[in-house]
Design brief:
This protein is α/β, with parallel strands linked by helices. 32% of the residues lie in helices and 20% in strands. The radius of gyration is 23 Å and the shape is globular.
């Protein structure tokens, strides 16, 4: 028995945890399911026919969060004959068959290397009335060859590589995502053009370590060349990338950022620690002097660059002097934002077995001091922009208080979050449109622009948002995408047709 009414397509819902890579993988999962005839469930639907958890193994308590949510779904599934639950992503790659052992009501478990198998695994599990677990050890096809249902009309992720060749002692990603695999530049640029042809204005090039791109085909300058090539794509207004590794950061990338007009002057470069001793223990193959040297070169080429980072507090063996050095680097780097984390043990990584594990209260106290230091700097840096005119790409869901305050929100070219008043343009500005406005107030994590916009440009992305349409990029040959319902597939020629 299936849950969908006779003749109705089965509905699905994807729940995503973790990094940008997981968010983009979820777009592919949605694209695959819709290509197979599924329809996205309404947000208010508490009983979709298929629920897919796309999981993360990096964040603290990832396991507890997953199994807690699976437990909440158990009675729902019991009352909903034919409902299926699938678990994919990094936690699925790590836990494998343990997921079905701990939660036997799960129907499908799939890994990071075989997202494309999900529709077939769902069919097989339904036909056999038994759980299907398929975890591959290496990538069969590059994920971007799969159909993708994009979540945004105006901004898109484009993977340039998957996997990682580094061996950081705190990180489980390489063992779950595998060694780095690079896409060919022509395939990447074809996908970018396809997105732009559908109205997308901003593209983020995505990889575990984007500036090692080219290692697989022997060109250490490939990433800088790719950035410059993106500058030749008509209609592409903003190019971003995440995340680079300081050890692979080359001067040609800085030059490409500075000299390519559509590459945004924003850089997210993880620091992790300002202490050379801690960086050595982390197996981060750079030191604080190298890190600060990169920032100095970036600011010399692009004085307006906004630089963000990741920092871990309380790594095993971190002394008070080590932590003080991290604060020193934060003050010298003057980040516009920082993602800060308290170290937590990850099974399968070397760090949990190291000497010098720190008490929770020590880590917490240092974390609070780091937050205070970061916010003091980010607030001071944001205050420098009061009175400046910024170009804002209007976004969805960036401002939780927008409805109450009458503002809209979006990102400036440097990546800063801007909440802006709409003035006489209320009701006419759409997500995906471009607004120029003047900053009137600065907070540690955002800017406000409370005067009327200086300019408003309607865009094709705004048209699509107004019509409730999102781009869909097909997985075959990266041809031109369509907006709206996908065209019916051609009838099979020869061979066996599906029953």
């Amino acid at each position: 028995m299936t849950t969908a009414a006779a003749g109705s397509p089965r509905t699905y819902q994807v729940r995503t945890y973790g990094c940008q890579m997981n968010v983009h993988d979820s777009e592919r999962i949605s694209g695959l399911l819709e290509d197979a005839g599924y329809v996205r469930a309404a947000e208010a639907d508490e009983q979709p026919d298929v629920v897919v958890f796309n999981t993360c193994a990096v964040r603290e308590n990832a396991d507890n969060r997953l199994y807690g949510n699976l437990g909440h779904l158990r009675p729902v599934k019991a009352k909903h004959p034919g409902m299926q639950i699938a678990v994919g992503g990094c936690l699925a790659q790590k836990d494998r068959g343990d997921i079905v052992r701990k939660a036997p009501w799960v129907d499908v478990v799939f890994g990071t290397h075989n997202i494309g198998s999900l529709p077939a695994l769902l069919d097989r599990a339904r036909h056999n009335a038994a759980a299907e677990v398929e975890i591959l050890e290496s990538l069969e096809v590059f994920p971007s060859t799969l159909p993708t249902r994009r979540e945004s009309t105006y901004a898109g992720w484009v993977s340039i590589s998957v996997g990682c060749n580094n061996t950081c002692t705190f990180c489980i990603v390489p063992s779950l995502r595998g060694k780095e695999k690079d896409r060919r530049p022509g395939d990447i640029l074809s996908e970018v053009r396809a997105l732009v042809d559908s109205g997308v204005l901003e593209v983020t090039l995505l990889g575990q370590n984007v500036n090692s791109y080219g290692v697989e085909f022997g060109d250490r300058y490939a990433f800088g060349k790719l950035l410059r090539a993106c500058g030749d794509i008509d209609g592409l207004e903003r190019v971003r990338f995440t995340s680079p590794h300081p050890k692979d950061f080359t001067d040609d990338v800085i030059a490409a950022m500075a000299e390519t007009p559509n590459v945004c002057h924003s850089l997210h470069m993880p620091l992790q620690s300002g202490s050379d001793d801690v960086l050595r223990a982390m197996r981060r193959s750079y030191r604080s002097e190298r890190y600060l040297g990169i920032i100095e070169k970036v600011r010399a080429a692009m004085p307006d660059a906004a630089i963000t980072t990741d920092i871990i507090v309380g790594f095993p063996g971190e002394t008070e002097a080590d932590f003080a050095r991290t604060l020193d680097v934060v003050r010298e780097a003057r980040f516009s934002s920082a993602f800060t984390f308290q170290y937590s043990k990850r099974p399968g990584t070397p760090a949990p077995t190291m000497d010098g594990q720190l008490p929770k209260q020590v880590v917490q106290e240092r974390y609070e001091r780091l937050i205070a230091c970061v916010e003091e700097i980010t607030w001071a840096e944001n205050k420098k922009l009061v009175g400046e005119t910024v170009e804002v790409l209007v976004a969805v869901g960036e401002g939780r208080k927008d409805e109450r305050t009458g503002r809209m929100s979006g990102r400036a070219r440097d990546g800063r979050l801007v909440h802006f008043a709409t003035g006489d343009l209320a009701g006419r500005i759409r997500p995906g449109d471009i607004v120029h406005t003047t900053v009137t107030y600065a907070a540690p994590h955002h800017l406000n622009a409370d005067g009327a916009p200086l300019a408003h440009r309607r865009t094709r992305a705004g048209d699509a948002a107004e019509a409730g349409q999102v781009p869909r990029t097909p997985g075959v040959l990266l041809g031109l995408p369509t907006i709206g319902a996908p065209a019916a597939p051609p009838a099979p020629v020869g061979g066996c047709a599906a029953p």
